[in-house]
Design goal:
InterPro entries: Homeodomain-like_sf, Transposase_8. By secondary structure, this protein is mainly alpha-helical. The chain is built from 5 helices and 2 strands. Strands 1-2 form a two-stranded antiparallel sheet. A hairpin with a 5-residue loop joins strand 1 (102-105) and strand 2.
Length: 130
């Protein structure tokens, strides 16, 4: 049995919008559940945002309050790198690598290397990153 509408895309709220909702809930003009219904947010989610603002440990709170700036990825036009074939090697001479290395390079410059050929691990990693 399906619960909720799983065909709907997940909604996202900007840090500033979350903070505005929390401020309205903290103003005590209306109950938290009334404010949550007004913005079509689960009351438990709003309570969580309120705790996160109170403790000031979450990154979105620091961004919304101006304590931290959001990381912006550089917008670049994708380009192809030039490739030059200097010598053709017969296929029978090509030796497979003893242990394949898969390297993931992130926008912030960090690199993650896997020194084993494990398709299931890579599949799980890609699923988590999406």
């Amino acid at each position: 049995m399906k619960r909720g509408n799983q065909n709907k895309p997940r909604r996202t709220f900007t840090p500033e919008h979350k903070l505005d909702i929390v401020k309205e809930a903290n103003a005590n003009k209306a109950s938290v559940s009334t404010i949550a219904r007004k913005y079509d947010v689960n009351a438990n989610q709003l309570f969580r945002w309120m705790r996160e603002v109170e403790h000031n440990k979450m990154r979105w709170v620091r961004i919304a309050t101006g304590q931290e700036t959001p990381m912006k990825l550089p917008l670049q036009t994708p380009t192809f790198l030039p490739v030059t074939v200097s010598q053709q090697i017969p296929v029978q001479q090509v030796q497979p690598a003893t242990s394949p290395i898969v390297t993931l390079e992130f926008a912030n410059g960090h690199r993650l290397q896997f020194h084993q050929d494990n398709p299931e691990l890579l599949k799980q990693l890609v699923a988590v990153m999406l």
